[in-house]
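Q: What would this chain look like folded?
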Amino acid sequence: MAHPSAEAIRRPRADAVRNRERVLEAAKAVFSAGGPDASLEAVARRAGVGIGTLYRHFPTREALFEAVYRREVEQLGDLSEALKSEPDPVAALRHWLRSNVEFVATKKGMSAALALAVNSSSDLTVYSFDRLTKAVGALLDRAVAAGEIRADVGPEDLLRALVGMCYLHDQPGWQTSVLRLLDVFVDGLMIRTGVDGASAPPRGGATKSVKRVKKNRQPPTSRKRR
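A: My prediction, written as structure tokens:
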């Protein structure tokens, strides 16, 4: 009688893998819409599995949140790799940044419990920051090398700006507003070419010049009244 190999024993069954993916996809949708208080029963119903199946894969709510978060980060990393073949580097960068708005929506919906998961698993923060920074950095480098995006911004700057835009808007329909602002932001990073073919100077240069003039300008001398 043939006995299953150790590798076969360790490998999850195909239906178990499918159920796990269905739970993660359902959790993303439920938590984005209902917030951290959305029930796990609602997640199981949306995934089409029993609550026992959900708990076999994710024993706690925090474990499910962390798994959803890691999956989103991995998908954004994979998207960056796929977008490297996009002929327009600015369009690729814009596409990736816009996809992050949906990621932040999911993160907002489970922020409270996710904070507990992050505090108990410090490598989650390091992993996500490193993966996202490398992902956006690769697309940014392409756009800078093509001479289409100013070179004085880094991947961390883009992530900070993106998170800031998302968390400053918390009203219904905030994603539409953020996507519009994100387009304005990317447009502002683009290097404009003048009529003579020369690149226009970065906007920051003019700002620095104004600051220097203001710094060197002496305050007016007050006249004493007689």
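DSSP finds eleven helices and no strands in the chain.
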